[in-house]
Amino acid sequence: MSRASFSSGDAIADRRADYARMLADSGDHAAAAELMEQALEIMPSWPAGWDLLGSYQEKAGNAAAAIAAWRRLEALDDGGLFGARLKLAAHDAAPAGGGTALGYVEALFDQYAPQFEQSLLGKLGYRVPEMLDRLVEEEMAHLGIAWFDKALDLGCGTGLMGMRLREKVGILEGVDISAAMIAETARKGIYDSLQKAELVAALNARRAEADLMTAADVLIYCGALPPVLSALVPALKPGGLVAFSLEAHEGEEAVFLRPSLRYAHGIAATRDALVVAGLDVLRFETAILRLDRGAPIAGILVVARKPAMDLSAANDGDSGGDVAA
Asked: What tens digit of pLDDT does each residue of 147-189 get?
């Protein structure tokens, strides 16, 4: 994540960083890295400077120098705002770790919020909410569902998914890790309530609460899928639906971290995770989610259903207990 706007606290270092950015914008990343090194000789404890240096070295093709810069960054950035651990992991220089890199993702979307929709819709051809909504409506028709009592839009962002859900939902709640995203969508009046929270923590606080959950381009920041599903399924009502997207790859790995710092999930492993979580897979389709640097990003669109009967209760019934539906 770029933090070029963050001052080092020294006018000379800032001036050299400004010149470095101009050189990088012109495509001369090696020269930009050299100037950033000079700036960091003056201000060696400047996290944003090390982040920029790593970026310029990477784009100049100097992977070892980029990794060295990110190691310095990791030591300085206690909150993880710059995603140093993720950048190291994406270059096989550190383990990816588990779960969402909270500081990085929150900072990323706080910064991204003002231009989020313009960038996604105007430049990247983003259609995930539209595609997920179409699948949900088709399954509603197939299952005879006319209306959802309560829906939870995870990673609601600026409400692109929520706008499509609104007319088919009684109570619509949005959850997002970014306060800036929450502020952007609050102005639109789409949701009945909004919560700033990390996704798994928000789900763990709920039990059998929603009959629809959506996560459009959200789980790509969350790493392994099983821990998310373990929190999601108990929060879903029996018979409830969940619809989400993932970036996809066709290899054997369940998940890996891309240089974009987003996770790609294996197609076969994703199917297995859904079954292990106890969900019935209704739709499982591959699609182009959007563009990234002009290249199409392939993904998976999923609609799954929590069984209408609590299987553990049904098993209890076999030995004389009550059976709950």
From this structure: 999 999 999 999 999 999 999 999 999 999 999 999 999 999 9
Q: Which residue has the tokens 């990343």?
A: 29
Checking 272-279 for CB contacts under 8 A at 24+ apart, the result is 273/225, 273/226, 273/229, 274/229, 274/302, 274/304, 276/226, 277/226, 277/229, 277/230, 277/232, 277/233, 278/233, 278/306, 278/307, 278/311, 279/229, 279/233, 279/242, 279/304, 279/305, 279/306
**What is the mean predicted confidence (pLDDT) over 48-67?**
94
Q: What is the pLDDT of residues 36-49, one digit of tens each?
A: 999 999 999 999 99
**261: number of CA atoms within 13 Å, CB side?**
15
pTM: 0.84
Q: What is the DSSP string of 222-284?
A: S--HHHHHHHHHHHEEEEEEEEEEEEEE-SS-SEEE-TTS-EEEEHHHHHHHHHHTT-EEEEE
